[in-house]
């Protein structure tokens, strides 16, 4: 709002003419006040006092006077009827605010770096780090309390001092990278030569831990099954060659499929014992499930598929069956051997289920031990299939009708298909990463919520990684008061009070808050480590804990 000076005490109230701007029109209210052209203008301030300004501030003073009178509702024509009330002085509180710092995208002044990274990434020597500032920090590992770190800015400055320029540092990095690649190539070549040497002269090293896995637990069950099923396949094959029975052929194929699948299980057990590496940080425990899944597919393709094929061929083109005496003897021996292997698998599963506090059925359905489950189901199917084959062959001997023998082959194939479908389903569920039991998840949740430092937890996930290994993840809302109190309990309160009393300026206040703020954050990290350690100690199945701070 801008008022122009008028020659006399004439007032104008109402609306000015419309002012056009492009295609829009604006009608502005005007309150032209009597203003005398003189060298000085009196202006009323907010506290009612008068102030004289020079002629150079005439327009500004008139503008302020117009605003003041317009806000109080004064009208020049009705000045005698309505009096303006005196204004109260305005009190303004000035708030001291720290100047906001602008941090660039490559801000590394307060970043820490370990000595190993400093030597590897900046091509320095250990003697170069001796001259830098050393800082003790809380260790993220359970086995060490504190470790030494360096400021990244100091390390960068030292590297430039040693190498002279960023270009020289980049050349040195490239040279070391090429040397590392060459070293790895030589290492692979030497390992290959060592392997060939061992193959030629024999390996005289003591038995490794991987080999001992096949003398106890699931490994023992698998090795016993391999030996027995291999012998069964050999004798059943001889019986089929001698008799030409379709049921005996199905039994021979069944034993061959069991032998191959259990050899695959043994490979999965040996691979699952490998230690984690950078490419597989959570280990290779899922190799057992992968081997069991492939085994289920192999049973379906080799066992069920060939049995169905041979049974259908027998129905379409029946042929007389020779003497079945030797076939009955071999089936009886197979029944005894398969039954022995089945008992070994049942005893192992009972022992493992009792240790986990589960029933036999729950342990099998949840596929806690895929290798033993495969042996159990394969041997159970083998015992049933022997019974089916013997029954159908007996009916063929009594009636002389070869169709019964072909029907027996179809029955064995159906039984194998059912077992393979169950194995594929359970192992697929395990590989997808299913959740743990609700009761176990509730215990973990209650353990966290009962801790005083935890205010609430959200988005809780607990995944069964296989072989009694659980990965737990939760978003935790920590109580800042409890964390701060935990920090204060470790401090000298009198000394802290003296530090507070010495704070006089904003710079000293900022330094005080930054110092203790960083220590409180370290205390929060220590609380997170403590919670993770408690979860692992009270629940041995929990191997990996990820607590995210809200």
From TrEMBL:
Residues 49-68 have a biased composition (Basic and acidic residues). It catalyses: Zn(2+)(in) + 2 H(+)(out) = Zn(2+)(out) + 2 H(+)(in). GO terms for cellular component: endoplasmic reticulum; mitochondrial membrane; nucleus. InterPro entries: Cation_efflux, Cation_efflux_TM, Cation_efflux_TMD_sf, DNA-bd_dom_put_sf, SLC30A9, XPA_sf. Pfam families: Cation_efflux. Residues 222-432 form the Cation efflux protein transmembrane domain. It is a multi-pass membrane protein. It is found in: Endoplasmic reticulum; Mitochondrion membrane; Nucleus. The chain crosses the membrane at residues 221-242, 289-313, 325-346, 380-400, 406-425. Residues 48-90 are annotated as: Disordered. Keywords: Antiport, Endoplasmic reticulum, Ion transport, Membrane, Mitochondrion, Nucleus, Transcription, Transcription regulation, Transmembrane, Transmembrane helix, Transport, Zinc, Zinc transport. Coiled coil: none annotated. Residues 69-88 have a biased composition (Polar residues). One of its GO terms (biological process) is intracellular zinc ion homeostasis. One of its GO terms (molecular function) is monoatomic cation transmembrane transporter activity. The keyword Ion transport applies. Belongs to the cation diffusion facilitator (CDF) transporter (TC 2.A.4) family. SLC30A subfamily. This is Proton-coupled zinc antiporter SLC30A9, mitochondrial. It comes from Neopipo cinnamomea. The gene is Slc30a9.
